[in-house]
């Protein structure tokens, strides 16, 4: 890792981020980062423990003169999204993130950076370690598996935390203070199918969709970015309708909370259609690239001859698959009627796998309105059940209802305006923050969410602003000094 990261200001923040990013921390494989945080807390002589689901809590007493202030919970999540470019060789399970400085940005070489939520965690670590920062009594809550299930927040029991105020450091625009967020639900469609022997005289082709921007399936869903699974389905549907294309395999997308950037399919067509099929595909590819030229300038769609696969999908099931994915909603479903420019409900068709007689279609539906979440989930369920899928709902978590009369909100908005000469934007976001979930067991805790500017989260283009991290650091320190007095 380049020493230039450790030399950035504020050094205590960036050094803690560098330490953290040296530890592999994929969702659901957090043993090493849990040990890292526990060792850190214990090395400082602070009360440090795990709860039953493996969240880590570290308690630090108030500094002198701050004992009469309300106790606070500083909260961030330990796991990070693992995405890499197709041509990047990287082992997320065993390698630390390779970072570098690019102007005002810190980036990673070909992978996600982990600033989501690594910078928030690093900020908390810097506060725990400091002997100079003034603060009230602190509970640092490091949750697990936020990115793929909100597991840590969902399973944190009431009574574990003692704080009155929770500061969640997991948003990505430094001029925004979040007071609400979307909930979500996983919609998964599965079914088996019969494989058939590939007809004599067939020609094999590989189709690849790549070069899409991707991004966060909540925060970026309104941007009109390309979805590799939808684009691939469009190509396959046309090839099937016009040339009797048959599918051998599909592998598209990766994580539910990432807009899919790549999809690869293995297909066959009858030899008699060979030239016509390629000509037709090139025309459609040209049309799609023209449609996306503004939003997706690096979109690449390749079609090339391959070995002929020995087996292909049953045609009846294949037709149902292609029509159902065409019918299934992807993107913004409804905008909020109550908050300007806020996406209320959306869906991300995140993962499509067809292989060895099994189909899996994985979606993440998000909403700030519980009834709308079920409405869209049932719409998706209907599309998939029409071709014989078993559809399951899982991983449901609630949204966070805004509290515009929050005491800590008044503190943050006042400090922000004093430091920056303008008002902060008080918003709700379409991402899934842990505040709504934590509030179910801690309904009286005053909660707020904010963070430094991070762009491209959940994609290899993820980058964190150096200037914004300095602004974030200064903001947090003054917030700690101005926590309200106990009543």
UniProtKB/TrEMBL annotation:
InterPro entries: Peptidase_M20, Peptidase_M20_dimer, Peptidase_M20C. Keywords: Cobalt, Hydrolase, Metal-binding, Metalloprotease, Protease, Zinc. Pfam families: M20_dimer, Peptidase_M20. GO terms for biological process: proteolysis. Its EC number is 3.4.13.18. Its cofactor is Zn(2+); Co(2+). GO terms for molecular function: metal ion binding; metallodipeptidase activity. It comes from the Bacteria. It catalyses: Hydrolysis of dipeptides, preferentially hydrophobic dipeptides including prolyl amino acids. One of its GO terms (cellular component) is cytosol. Belongs to the peptidase M20C family. NCBIfam families: aa-his-dipept (TIGR01893). This is Cytosol non-specific dipeptidase. It comes from Flavobacterium luteum. The lineage of its organism: Bacteria, Pseudomonadati, Bacteroidota, Flavobacteriia, Flavobacteriales.
